[in-house]
Amino acid sequence: MYTIATFTLVPVGKDISISKYVAACIEELKTLNVNYTLHANGTNIEGDWDEVFSAIKQCQIKIHDMGPQRIFTTIQLGTRTDKKQQMENKIDSVLKKIK
Amino acid sequence: MYTIATFTLVPVGKDISISKYVAACIEELKTLNVNYTLHANGTNIEGDWDEVFSAIKQCQIKIHDMGPQRIFTTIQLGTRTDKKQQMENKIDSVLKKIK
Amino acid sequence: MYTIATFTLVPVGKDISISKYVAACIEELKTLNVNYTLHANGTNIEGDWDEVFSAIKQCQIKIHDMGPQRIFTTIQLGTRTDKKQQMENKIDSVLKKIK
Amino acid sequence: MYTIATFTLVPVGKDISISKYVAACIEELKTLNVNYTLHANGTNIEGDWDEVFSAIKQCQIKIHDMGPQRIFTTIQLGTRTDKKQQMENKIDSVLKKIK
Fold first, then answer.
1. C25: Cβ–Cβ under 8 A, 6 or more apart, which residues?
2. Is A77 within 8 Å of D41 when comparing Cβ atoms?
3. How many CB atoms lie within 10 A of CB C31?
4. A60 to chain B, minimum CA–CA distance in Å?
5. Are the C-beta atoms of C7 and C52 separated by less than 8 Å?
6. Which one of B99, C21, D19, D82 has the fewest CB atoms closer than 10 angstroms to its CB?
7. What is the reported pLDDT for D98?
8. pLDDT, chain C, mean
9. Smallest Cα distance from A31 to chain D, Å
10. Cα separation, C54 vs D89, whole angstroms
11. CB burial class (10 A; 0-12, 13-18, 19+) of residue B99?
């Protein structure tokens, strides 16, 4: 199942700034060679279901390893079997319909 | 990583009522023998990270098999390494603090 | 628009335990006389759109007043214009379809 | 309360493609003159709490007016009282920490 997702990992009970944890996750995604885009409220990622969830799990583990003992995580995703669609197609599809 | 999550699977472009799909997912969770609770906006589930995500994946596959070609899914979860906590502990912990 | 929602308020950069903040929000909901149910991953609430969002805003303000300078909030909701449905109807509708 | 949010409106029981509804919401945001960014899994928006939620409500109403009788909506947001931060600051803050 091809999966397009956005996810956010929020360490709780530690620093008020979470950017260093987001940066560590992005470095992890680079190592995993998965397609991602950082946005203001999370990270978009796409790939096969297992690839996407394995990447999120690696980020969760990495952030726990950095110190935070509690992490609150949100994931929002879509799968579709009628056609292959990638993240940039989704955006293009909207943009060309805006008057 | 022990994981407490809530998830919601919304088939898109098919029926306006989604209860039969939620019911099919609950049946799947029963088969998998995972600890879950149905609530008004989703299903709570707990267990090891892999167990939780494997269960959600099985629901996603089962619902696609029932016909819907697009599913929009949300997952919200917490992991903590400082102590073992289960779903009922979380609720108890709040209830005893309400004045 | 009648709105059925679940929401979660997570104070960031403060305590690892967030139950006292959830309890404070529940007390606020009681004062507001809005229909709610606490579950293991958030609070379900229902009512008119403005009533629901006003209640969430009051919780956000109350928790900031308790000290946390950053709050991460998630809201997931449904509105439907084809029929009036309440939280307990949604659950009943699923339960009677489970084999 | 300055609010940075991402939101997604998914019409249920209607078309499998939702891009025309997203486009209609973007047109609404343009009219409201609110600061937004479209991304692959939703729309980021920022402003005062009331401004942000009023905009989301207008999109919800507009999409119901276009036909869909059920809409599933997710909102994820942050507020912070320690400093004024905007969407582009959040991204910059992460980018300069990536090795």
1. C9, C43, C59, C62, C63
2. yes
3. 11
4. 9
5. no
6. B99
7. 95
8. 96
9. 12
10. 28
11. exposed
- The whole-number average pLDDT for the span D32-52 is 97
3-state secondary structure of D37: strand
The answer to whether the CB of B14 falls within 8 A of the CB of D13 is yes
Model confidence at D99: pLDDT above 90: no
Task: Please name the amino acid found at residue A92.
Answer: D
- C24-71 residue pLDDT tens: 999 999 999 999 999 999 999 999 999 999 999 999 999 999 999 999
Q: What is the spatial distance between Cα C10 and Cα A11, in angstroms, rounded to a whole number?
A: 10
Query: Are residues A41 and D99, on separate chains, in Cβ contact within 8 Å?
Result: no
Please indicate if any CB of chain A lies within 8 Å of the CB of C13: yes
Q: Which of D8, D12, D71 is the best mutation test for B, with the most CBs of B within 10 A?
A: D12
pLDDT digits (tens, 9 = 90+) for B15-65: 999 999 999 999 999 999 999 999 999 999 999 999 999 999 999 999 999
CA distance D36 to D90: 14
Would you call D19 and A90 a contact, using CB atoms and an 8 Å cutoff?
yes
Residue D23 tokens read as 């486009």
**Quick check: C45 and C29 in contact, CB under 8 A?**
yes
Question: What would the pLDDT profile of B57-66 be if each residue is shown by its tens digit?
Answer: 999 999 999 9
Report angle CA D49, D51, D53 to the nearest 5 degrees: 70
Tell me whether C14 touches chain A (CB under 8 Å). Answer: yes
Residue D35: C-alpha distances to residues D4, D24, D83 (Å): 10, 16, 19
The pLDDT assigned to B99 comes to: 85
**pLDDT > 70 in chain B, percent:** 100
What secondary structure, in 3-state letters, does B63-90 show?
Answer: HHHCCCCEEEEEEEEEEECCCCCCHHHH
Residue among D4, D19, D77 whose CB faces A94 most closely: D19
Q: In this complex, do D94 and A6 lie within 8 Å of one another by their Cβ atoms?
A: no
Confirm if A71 and A57 have CB atoms less than 8 A apart. Answer: no
**Each residue of A61-90: pLDDT tens digit?**
999 999 999 999 999 999 999 999 999 999
pLDDT value of residue B77: 98
